[in-house]
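EI: anyone free to look at a 88-residue chain?
SC: sure, send it
EI:
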Amino acid sequence: MKTSLSAHAVRVGGFFLILYLLCLIWQMWSTDAAVQAFHLTSLKFLFPGFSGFTLASILLGGAWSFVYGFVGSYAFHRFHASCCTPQK
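SC: here you go
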């Protein structure tokens, strides 16, 4: 059974969103100030508009995570169309 290109890209985008949420949970769980500073700096670098751990920034980071996964998967499958088809 062959899935559509966009359906696969949505699944990869969802996976990236789950990874983002796990990163946020890890940051909240950690008590080390250096780890928290590293997470904040990394999130500000990766997600344009991320300013801190406010609700708006967290939602914006989630949207960017999904977009990164979706676009990356879509572009990869455009160049490698037969990567997910069963081989005989």
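EI: Residues 5-79 form one domain.
SC: 👍
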